[in-house]
What does this fold into?
Amino acid sequence: METVAKEFEGKLPQKIINEAVAEAKKRSCSKDQLKKIIQYLKEQYDDARITAGEGIGIVTAESFGEPSTQMTLNVFHFAGVAEVSVTQGLPRLIEILDARKEIKTPSMEIYIKKEFNKDMNVVKKVAASIKETKFADIVTEFTINLSKLQIEATLHQNRIKDLKLTPDTIAKALGEGLKNVIVTSSPNKITLKAKDAENELMEIYKLKEKSKDIFIKGIKGISQVLPVKKDNEFFIVTAGSNLKEVLEIKEIDETKTSTNSLFEVLAVLGIEAARRTVINEAKKVIENQGLDVDIRHIMLIADIMTTSGTVKGITRSGITSGKSSVLARASFETPIVHIINASLVGEEDQLNSVIENVMLNQPVPLGTGLPGLVAKMIKGAEKGIPKGKAKK
It folds into this structure.
């Protein structure tokens, strides 16, 4: 088997050869069978390769742009599981390709480790510990005591019990979140009173509204959690995202947990993971619409967006601003700005790409326009000597 592998070295990527050999050993294949398998893989690999001089950027733009816009019917809608909604269709695709830092519906898929993912009770506890709990979520009633100029909040006993909270821990969280406020707790109530108030009644109403949004427990940013069963295991779908803090929970399977926020992935896991997220998210949108785009086109877009070491959108301030050609930058948006800036510093355009040559009505350096034709002259041909008798 090793001799067969050596025979194909340099003709196929080594990883493909190694995987084929490992699989052949597992299935007890003969030497001839392995040779046929690798030969078939080589044919498939050669068919998948792009021809030298192919305009891959144009082909990608066509094959990605046309299905994602003109053939997408359900473009402006929200789709999701129960109360957890996620942007789909064209709006989501624009978010990905523009590399927007603030997305409309950040969401996570949180997977649980194998030893816990079949126990619904454990999954529910993990979900409850993840969900961001604000003061308003654990209060049944807010009362303003005008005689004492204080707010009395009646606690929701069942919710407090489920979240394993005590009135003292709630009072402590409120004390940290609110300045110049005296917080006192009793088994059923939390009382809030402002230390100094100029317009006392107005201030007490403001304090009531402000206290509702004080963070008590959970992970900030995750407003909804929903345990979902798929393929005989439970995982949690969230509305809101906070990858860094979620990965610190001991029951979480950090190898499978994901978020749809590119910049969170970039900050926590790095540029390679961000590239993979661009591919996964774009692929998900296209597949949800029932369309089919070759994965290589999506991979090319992801490579272009992440090749600089950070995530850049396909915008005038993103990848377009990094192009070396002045005319290519000017062709996208704000042409006058680009041309004036280039002329101020004496920038030169080498005319290496497509758009600038199209502008100047010159052959594009792709396909038949890529090679230059060089004629090999025969000595004496210019003097009228017959071709057969001319000396080279």
